[in-house]
Q: What sequence folds into this?
């Protein structure tokens, strides 16, 4: 992806980390591309949208649930369109290797009205991306580039010599176009019609797109597939006739119909929801869909074999490996020991610290979406009987706080529960969960250079929260538990910040800090 | 070595931080240098905390799925012996297991070289020329780690006792 982004002349790549999307921007940056982490996906999408409005080719990356966060601008950006390419890379996680749900983001293409392109290996990731840029600029529309875990976290050979020629990007410049960009109802109404017009044209063009490939085989079995599922299917049924779809919205219904009619039995093999099967059937083309049990989890060669045999007998469970645990000596441990020992009701959040739910802590009661710890905790405080309400605490990581904790704090100040509330920000100086990315609270950019820094305690105080404490959780044994008990007893809105670097990131963080210091000294020396 | 439509399937398993992914990268690189189609796939994400990690490498004339189907692995390389049982289902009948005990870790410059030492043991079963392994190891590590890893690889090549 990074290679293709470089050769497509992407001016700006932005995003928020999330498995399995994180490595795209890191590698784009390593190859000299301009890449930056945004505090969250909505911000990332809007920054990329602004860049595209300014005439620059841009990319925004996120994991599947990130698109939920970015959905608001996404839907209306489909109306406004873009003068230069804007590609949203959504990395879905069927099977939830590292996610809180396995939502199928193909539905977003339909719901927002955005063309969608899906690669099935590294070669296609490269080639299809260049195609996506061309589609985006031909129709002036953002493109949803949907990948999945097994396409993201696999390596297959890429031949860059085959790439199609893409027009060189025009230099960024602002061209005013008020009716297209300002979505007041009077301008949005025609914009919606125009969007549908574009989609109709793209549907027509998809009928002849090189991204959809037909392989002839036996007449007795035809398979329609896309993405990684197509690879499994080719392996299972090498003799079958194949239609592999790369443009999965709008669907090229004419070639799908032709194909289905050319075979005796046509099976749709897809991972996740029955998106292709439902759409194709709704168009009046009879195809076989997979049995519902294969909607859960990711597909593999064995499961595709079963789908083709319409086998619905119970599947043999795969032995589960060793679950991850908080590292020995992880600063988060102290916090969860205290929650456990004080019998807290803990509204939790997402990050390494979610592992506080497992033994020996079992000190987390809810975990839904990023930022929800603070707000769910407030809801609990509002309604629970007093003796329970006073035990509710929220716990949130530093990257997660910068992502979507700020508005939760605003809510705490604006609608404080009668018993107050305690928010614990576990600040380990990095986004540990996804591989130690920087975020606004670290004061370093994606490539670890110094930049502006968000100071959580200053923000909390500026919002009018009086009980704000910063503590090193490892400094003195029992100190955090004491502070937590004291603060809970005060029944005031409170923020406790435990600040201690993630064990695995500490050496690297020190090196970045040293590098920054040396840079500063060199500057000072020059100035003299 | 694969001929015709045959594909060689290798699964490397261990715990987060042991170098599973690095080992599979090197193996995939060797197969690539030898002119095969090669695909590699892995599951990681929450791996930094000592959880299970495994990676699949498949090579041959043409590879479709990047994942080794259950019951089809020719070789299962296990960096941490407690990961053997949870991965056994990937092995084909008669498939070869190369487990950590094969290598006397005290004879390595660092216990962290166990991944490359086990690649050495695996290399005794695959007919790739040694210079391809050396080249892949060199391109996979920074220069200061070259000697240590080449030595570990050489040592691993002599550890050929296998379990089935
Ligand atoms: C909307 C959304 N975006 C991204 C993610 C992926 N993700 C989960 S937790 C997390 C951040 C974890 O960092 P932090 O809060 O600092 O906790 P740590 O892992 O360092 O303990 C990220 C990026 C997600 N689950 N949901
Ligand atoms: S990676 Fe860091 S934050 Fe995560 S469990 Fe280990 S020490 Fe804790």
A:
């Amino acid at each position: 992806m990074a290679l293709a982004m470089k050769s497509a002349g992407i001016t700006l790549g932005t995003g928020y980390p999330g498995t399995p999307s994180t490595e795209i921007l890191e590698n784009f940056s390593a190859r000299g591309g301009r890449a930056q982490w945004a505090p969250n996906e909505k911000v990332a999408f809007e920054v990329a949208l602004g860049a595209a409005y300014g005439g620059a080719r841009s990319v925004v990356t996120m994991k599947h649930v990130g698109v939920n966060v970015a959905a608001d601008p996404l839907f209306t950006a489909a109306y406004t369109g873009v003068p230069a390419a804007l590609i949203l890379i959504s990395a879905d996680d069927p099977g939830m290797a590292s996610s809180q749900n396995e939502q199928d983001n193909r539905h977003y293409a339909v719901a927002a009205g955005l063309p969608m392109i899906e690669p099935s290996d590294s070669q296609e990731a490269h080639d299809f991306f260049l195609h996506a840029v061309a589609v985006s600029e031909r129709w002036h529309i953002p493109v949803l580039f949907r990948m999945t875990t097994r396409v993201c976290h696999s390596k297959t050979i890429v031949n860059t010599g085959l790439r199609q020629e893409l027009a060189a990007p025009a230099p960024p410049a602002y061209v005013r176009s008020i009716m297209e960009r300002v979505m007041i109802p009077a301008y949005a109404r025609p914009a919606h019609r125009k969007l549908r017009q574009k989609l109709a044209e793209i549907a027509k063009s998809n009928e002849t797109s090189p991204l959809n490939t037909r392989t002839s085989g036996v007449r007795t079995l035809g398979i329609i597939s896309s993405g990684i599922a197509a690879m499994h299917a080719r392996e299972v049924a090498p003799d079958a006739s194949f239609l592999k779809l790369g443009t999965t919205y709008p669907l090229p219904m004419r070639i799908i119909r032709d194909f289905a009619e050319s075979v005796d039995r046509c099976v749709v093999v897809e991972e996740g929801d029955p998106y292709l099967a439902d759409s194709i059937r709704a168009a009046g083309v009879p195809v076989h869909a997979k049995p519902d049990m294969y909607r859960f989890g990711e597909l593999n060669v064995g499961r595709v074999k079963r789908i083709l045999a319409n086998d619905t007998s119970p599947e043999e469970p795969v032995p589960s490996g060793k679950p991850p645990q908080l590292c020995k000596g992880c600063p988060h441990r102290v916090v969860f020991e205290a929650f456990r020992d004080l019998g807290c009701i803990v509204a939790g959040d997402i990050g390494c610290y979610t592992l506080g739910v497992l033994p020996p802590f079992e000190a987390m009661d809810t975990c839904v979406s990023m930022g929800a710890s603070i707000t769910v905790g407030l809801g609990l405080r509002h309604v629970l009987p007093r003796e329970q309400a006073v035990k509710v605490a929220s716990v949130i990581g530093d990257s997660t706080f910068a992502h979507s904790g700020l508005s939760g704090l605003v809510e705490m100040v604006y609608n404080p529960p009668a018993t107050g509330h305690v928010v614990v920000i576990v600040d380990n100086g990095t986004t540990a969960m996804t591989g130690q990315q920087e975020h606004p609270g670290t004061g370093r950019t994606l490539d670890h250079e110094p930049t502006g820094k968000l100071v959580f305690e200053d923000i909390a105080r500026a919002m009018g929260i009086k009980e704000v404490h910063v503590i090193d959780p490892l400094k003195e044994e029992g100190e955090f538990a004491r502070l937590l008990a004291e603060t809970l007893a005060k029944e005031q809105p409170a923020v406790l910040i435990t600040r201690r670097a993630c064990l695995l990131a500490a050496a690297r963080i020190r090196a970045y800090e040293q590098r920054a210091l040396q840079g500063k000294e060199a500057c000072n020396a020059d100035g003299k | 070595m694969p001929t015709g439509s045959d594909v060689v399937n290798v699964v490397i398993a261990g715990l987060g931080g042991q170098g599973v992914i690095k080992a599979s990268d090197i193996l995939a690189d060797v197969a690539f240098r030898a002119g095969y189609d090669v695909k590699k796939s892995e599951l990681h994400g929450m791996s930094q905390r000592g959880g299970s990690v495994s990676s699949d490498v498949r090579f041959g004339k043409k590879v479709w799925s990047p994942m080794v189907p259950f019951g089809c692995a020719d070789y299962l390389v296990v960096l941490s012996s407690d990961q053997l049982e949870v991965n056994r289902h990937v092995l084909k009948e008669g498939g070869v297991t190369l487990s950590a005990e094969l290598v006397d870790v005290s004879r390595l410059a660092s216990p962290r070289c166990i991944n490359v030492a086990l690649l050495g043991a695996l290399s005794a079963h695959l007919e790739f020329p040694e210079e391809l392994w050396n080249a892949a190891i060199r391109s996979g590590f920074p220069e200061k780690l070259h000697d240590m890893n080449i030595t570990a690889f050489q040592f691993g090549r002599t550890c050929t006792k296998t379990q089935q």
Notes: Chain A has 21 helices and 17 strands. The radius of gyration of chain A is 25 Å. The mean pLDDT of chain A is 96.
